[in-house]
């Protein structure tokens, strides 16, 4: 059952493969640091091309920090916009030609949230009401609308479970009239009695489909007519028609078979080894971020399959394999599997797997797929990165494989729980080719894939500016916990070069990478 140990091919290197012809290389050229540790001080960044300013969510202060990025090698803090009059929890920021939109959760998270609009100079124009716990927002490519994913998480005791929502804000007005912007907030009540794909998870205690669906992240097609919204905990993606302002499909994402060759995981944090192997476990994709792109006439979307578990008051979804009763027929070697060095420590869900309802588990479902995935517009699977992300980290940093983001000297501590945890994602065309830039939340760093052939993407490079010898609490460990990523094409960039901007929530830092195409 165990696989071969992964030996370091490129010790302490940021490159796990040679650069490919027509490929790219990332160089960190600048940074903005708050020196605030583990408080979400630099979670989501957004660059505004008109003002050449960077807007960064600072959850530690309930503000948006405004940074001069005219010289991306020397970001300079200018001022902050206080959001306390509008809520208690800024979650996302997006810009469009001098207009800034910020989503803010209410002090009571189950209450409706706000989207605050202000100018690049900090002048607040208006705040409009959206669904509960707005978690992410973006402008459509044509700039005509802002889309807001309203997660609608339950209260900590699960006594209140608001509807998950997506709000559409029409912003085709000058800033002085933004308060009059029309807001359409959609929910999923139409699917309460629908027959859903069996891989779609609806499992909150007493929840309807509309309550249980929790929109996380939004991607929009290049023509601004279609959007896809990740329903992370539900293992699904909703398709939204922006012309009719209606949901047209709930796409179940299926499950990943970690027993298949190339789909292995390192499942134990107690074996003192890098051991990526096949196991009788299904991976629930549970994607966080999503981004759309088009090759030829076909639209695709990419997801970063982070995984997430629900734990609200008495409802705790997560359990270790060794704590579960396993069906003897499905798992004839259950005692061996339950050893800490095997599957015993792996975190899985209690909400899936007891197919016959007899109290033991006929299948095991782990959180996240430790991968990125490409799907067509209809949700059909095109490609998954398999076990590449864990292999990449093992090759580049064998002494810090599957480390945690909040502490150094944490080798292998995340193997039992989602591994490197791909979360943030940005797409961009460099050298005429589509590339994906993937933030690995736990060990840190950015993995780059060439997507020009969506059915056969190629890993290009892994760059991690983390200092594993430093002290995270003293801000000497570099960048930790990449969360939000933004690609800035050369035509819109302040230095005429393609850039990647990365917000790191644990280190409270924003990194600026220059992307150079290789001849």
Adjacency order of strands in the biggest sheet: 1-35-34-33
* Topology, number of strands: 35
CATH superfamily grouping: YVTN repeat-like/Quinoprotein amine dehydrogenase
Q: What is the terminal-to-terminal distance?
A: 43 Å
The CATH topology is given as: Methylamine Dehydrogenase, Chain H
- Structural category is mainly beta
Count every helix, treating DSSP H or I runs of 4 or more residues as helices: 3
Coarse morphology: globular
Instruction: Give the class-level CATH name.
Output: Mainly Beta
Q: Determine the fraction of residues in helical runs and give it as a percent range.
A: under 10%
| C-alpha-based Rg, rounded | 22 Å
Proportion of strand residues: 35-45%
- Domains counted in the coordinates: how many? 1
Largest sheet: 4 strands, antiparallel
CATH architecture title? 7 Propeller
**Could you list the spans in which at least 5 consecutive residues all have pLDDT below 50?**
1-19
Mean pLDDT, as a whole number? Answer: 94
